Automatic annotation (TrEMBL):
Chain segments carrying region Disordered: 1-22
Keywords: Cell membrane, Lipid biosynthesis, Lipid metabolism, Membrane, Nucleotidyltransferase, Phospholipid biosynthesis, Phospholipid metabolism, Transferase, Transmembrane, Transmembrane helix
Regions that span the bilayer: 25-41, 47-67, 79-97, 103-125, 137-158, 164-183, 204-222, 228-248
Documented EC number(s): 2.7.7.41
Matches recorded under Pfam families: CTP_transf_1
Native source organism of the sequence: Brooklawnia cerclae
Membrane topology, record value: Multi-pass membrane protein
The reaction(s) this protein catalyses: a 1,2-diacyl-sn-glycero-3-phosphate + CTP + H(+) = a CDP-1,2-diacyl-sn-glycerol + diphosphate
Lineage, opening ranks: Bacteria, Bacillati, Actinomycetota, Actinomycetes, Propionibacteriales
Protein name: Phosphatidate cytidylyltransferase
Amino acid sequence: MSDEDAGSQAAASEPSRPPRSPGRNLVAAIASGVVLAAWIVGTLLWWNWGFIIFLMACVVVGVFELVRALGRVGMYASYPPAGIGGSLTIALSFWLADAWGQLAGVSALFGGLAMMVIAALLWRLRGPVSGYIRDAAGSVFTVGYVPLLLGTLGLLLAQPKGNLRVIVYFVLVVCLDTGAYATGSLIGRHKMAPHISPGKTWEGFGAGVLLAAVAGAIATPLMLGGAWWAGFVIGLLVAVAAVTGDLVESSIKRDAGLKDMGRIIPGHGGALDRLDSLLVAAPVAWLSMLALVR
């Protein structure tokens, strides 16, 4: 056998390697990011209901992505109660909070969530008894993770100067991400959670949290008329919550064996890939601003 034939036979016997996945499309990522930012800022400044529609769309898509991810680990959550019921509950709670105050909005949000849980438990009764607890738990987790957390943004929007409060909330999360990424890339040495997110470092975490706190101390007096120290505390709390949310979403993806939760946003992945840190930070921003900014 010639050397050429032997090389061909050896190459044929080797297992075929999967093709490398292409990197993210930078142009598409920038374009979709600009469109999303323009919609969010534009609706917050001129049409608040447009932002609520955006939150409703996030629930519809985010719940679908989460149900799909849970299905990969054998938890078959019910989509309609959380996806449809959650979006309608967000609209109702904002409308009542805007018209009658925070107590009415909170009552509508948690009342709607309770109805979603009941609907999910009933929906699962159509299937076999085997696996009922597992699937019901997945449905309750879905209700709590997406509609509940996002619903608090509607309540934040209904507070006095609510549109500016939501903008400050976004600014704090962006400052956290920017500070953490820049510092972690330059001087990050100590891994924060290597089994979940290998790129995160304690140096980046500290710098991001500090930058968010300083941004809160500046933005709160200028935009909301609150005390600087209140803004500093809000920035700290929101930043820590945002990092927690990022780690939670990364854990879900790793457990489900997913790189991205979806592909609906060109260059970015799924809705939950962009909402990861924002989800957990939303109720923290709502409560801290409600308590500290009058």
